[in-house]
Amino acid sequence: MDIKNYVTEKAKNSKLAAKKLSYMDTNTKNKALLEMSKALLENKDYILSQNKIDIEAAEKIGTSKALIDRLTLDDKRINNMAEALIKTASLQDPIGEIIKMWKTPDELQIGQMRVPLGVIGIIYEARPNVTVDAAALCIKSGNAVILRGGKEAINSNTAIIRVIREAVIKSGLPSGSIEFIDITDRETVNVMMKLNGLIDVLIPRGGAGLIKSVVENSTVPVIETGTGNCHVYVDKYADFEKAENIIINAKLQRPAVCNAMESLLVHKDVADEFLPRLCKKLKDLNVEIRGCSVTQRIVSDVVPAVDEDYAKEFLDLILSVKVVGSLDEAIDHIFKYSTNHSEAIITENYTNAQRFLKEVDAAAVYVNASTRFTDGEQFGFGGEIGISTQKLHARGPMGLNQLTTTKYIIYGDGQVRK
Amino acid sequence: MDIKNYVTEKAKNSKLAAKKLSYMDTNTKNKALLEMSKALLENKDYILSQNKIDIEAAEKIGTSKALIDRLTLDDKRINNMAEALIKTASLQDPIGEIIKMWKTPDELQIGQMRVPLGVIGIIYEARPNVTVDAAALCIKSGNAVILRGGKEAINSNTAIIRVIREAVIKSGLPSGSIEFIDITDRETVNVMMKLNGLIDVLIPRGGAGLIKSVVENSTVPVIETGTGNCHVYVDKYADFEKAENIIINAKLQRPAVCNAMESLLVHKDVADEFLPRLCKKLKDLNVEIRGCSVTQRIVSDVVPAVDEDYAKEFLDLILSVKVVGSLDEAIDHIFKYSTNHSEAIITENYTNAQRFLKEVDAAAVYVNASTRFTDGEQFGFGGEIGISTQKLHARGPMGLNQLTTTKYIIYGDGQVRK
């Protein structure tokens, strides 16, 4: 089989579908999402049986428990996928919105209209629910989607795709609305990365290796959903109780995700009072502290931090700690080590809060709240396809609006340029 | 000299400058623009003398007249550059605008704030005025800029940079606000294209070859300012007078630019009446007509069009013409051949106008107006750094807003995620 040809044909089919999807009426798109939801529930047994094949294969090769958990579907998880589809149907259709409209001195009426991106390629790894979630958000926003999942979930994904594609076609959407690359050869990704003109954007979702590889090799534009080396800075004027709650939440509520806290900065004037109590609690919660020399002096049993500890996204029960001399030093430290994902200051001081919001450059900058809120659902977008850490196009949680572009529509009356 | 090291050091300087520029107050930025303007006028003789060196060198190697014209500076052109700076100073500062703000059920107040992209790399060719225009738009929008001009203008650019950089520093902006790569070795571009983390976006401005090379080789995100294969479709219900005026304007007002018309589609029911008269006028204006078989039958002296003629951006006094059977066929033809820049329908029919606006996908879609209006100045943006033909980030004319990204700022009161 010629892989290049195979992937290119799928993408051509997607492009044709995207043309129709781009002005498909909202009711038909919603109907498709509801049909997809129904079909998932009706074919639960089939999907679970195929998922079982993936799980057994994974166990055979000694896959880690965490990965097997991500791979595993059960009754409840399929129900959740079905519910997510219903919820996506209930969201407002972003397409056709006129973001603004104005009149020029030539009496041209110019409007900026929200339209789909076109064809979105999603390259992802283990979790089969991404197949459904990504397809739902793309269809609702009028985009065709090409899904390329990981080989560990190939049987689950193939089953899900068979079920939801049938529902999509039955609802009157073009067959190319959802394309799935059912060959897991790495070469399929290489081909996708070069399909300029057929694929409008690639969104890699998965480990740092996958994302780096796509960013470095794709000529198709990429939206980078990246790593989060998130800081919390406890200012001289922090409310200690808020600080403690936020730090424990940001570090521990779900340590393995990108919006979890990785590094703590504390103003020197409050370090003596604040750090020992906090660190005791964190250690009771099994968090390893890697601290600067001042932290080591104030707190017992601290692992000395090396420079890399401040640059690392642990995604684990490890926290780097540094005592800083001023707000400026905190901002400079964040500038140096941040991946510009989510950064927080804890302070009761108005001017320091405003300065932090203004001077720290990240997708989300917080005053007195947990970095864990950086999420499409929490922000009120009704879902997300990932969190962008790049500056171009979309930054932060990517909901339906972030899967769109705009076009200018111009109503004239015979105007020509002088 | 180690080129990689040289370019990287410049970019590091830019990144440091970008940090300060990102929250620089509007008055200081405006003052710098006005100082730059003044400095250009004060150093006119010096700039013209350096420009003369470039022109002589170009003449020596037999450069085309058109290119030499683009390269040439004179009193008036320097005055124009100085005026453009004053105008940019008068535009509203996009930075700090809160595009929207809302409250979540957790009582978090979330705002989306416009912030600079950071460091913008501009890779451009002959025209020295780009040096000033690009620098002005970048500074006003709080970005640091790295300029890499063509070797044919190296003396002019070096002189301009020396003059405006001095003004910038005098005004209190960081020295890295404007960096200039004064080595014309092609390798400098290669280095820029790989400086992820130091350069936030690259904007190539120039010929198709330059743009293609940057799009294909850059790992830094690129904004593509591309080609325009722009169509005008004369509907069955067109007002012939409007149609004729618009076609002549779109084709001839400035044929060598991307928003000029390249291809004409005419509904079959009006072709017999409309085409002969129009083509006569066009031929009198020295436009070569390359037509389909129907056009050849209706109009005399038509060059038979081959398929490539419909795909080509002539940038010259050549027009491809096709008679189509319906609005659907026109839309399909545009879908197939368009570069999605600017497309126009001429019609008095309400439903056809609305369908064309909805179904044609391009940066700018017109009813009854010339494609030549696709321009930052004409759209009311007060200037532009190019016209994006990609869908990601910016589409259409790129003014100050398109040189920005956003960050979410979140005002909390101790909230944690449940």
UniProtKB/TrEMBL annotation, chains A, B:
Protein name: Gamma-glutamyl phosphate reductase
Occurrences of domain Aldehyde dehydrogenase (ranges): 12-287, 318-408
UniProtKB keywords: Amino-acid biosynthesis, Cytoplasm, NADP, Oxidoreductase, Proline biosynthesis
PANTHER family: DELTA-1-PYRROLINE-5-CARBOXYLATE SYNTHASE (PTHR11063:SF8), GLUTAMATE SEMIALDEHYDE DEHYDROGENASE (PTHR11063)
Major localization class: cytoplasm
GO terms under cellular component: cytoplasm
EC number(s) per entry: 1.2.1.41
GO BP, sorted A to Z: L-proline biosynthetic process
Protein's job: Catalyzes the NADPH-dependent reduction of L-glutamate 5-phosphate into L-glutamate 5-semialdehyde and phosphate. The product spontaneously undergoes cyclization to form 1-pyrroline-5-carboxylate.
NCBIfam families: PRK00197.1 (NF001221), proA (TIGR00407)
Gene3D superfamilies linked to this entry: Aldehyde Dehydrogenase, Chain A, domain 1, Aldehyde Dehydrogenase, Chain A, domain 2
Chemical reaction(s) catalysed: L-glutamate 5-semialdehyde + phosphate + NADP(+) = L-glutamyl 5-phosphate + NADPH + H(+)
Recorded GO MF terms: glutamate-5-semialdehyde dehydrogenase activity; NADP binding
Pathway: Amino-acid biosynthesis; L-proline biosynthesis; L-glutamate 5-semialdehyde from L-glutamate: step 2/2
Protein family according to the UniProt entry: Belongs to the gamma-glutamyl phosphate reductase family.
Keyword flag rRNA-binding: no
Alphabetized InterPro entries for the sequence: Ald_DH/histidinol_DH, Ald_DH_C, Ald_DH_N, Aldehyde_DH_dom, G-glutamylP_reductase_CS, Glu-5-SA_DH, GPR_dom
PROSITE patterns: PROA
Compartment annotation: Cytoplasm
Pfam family, one: Aldedh
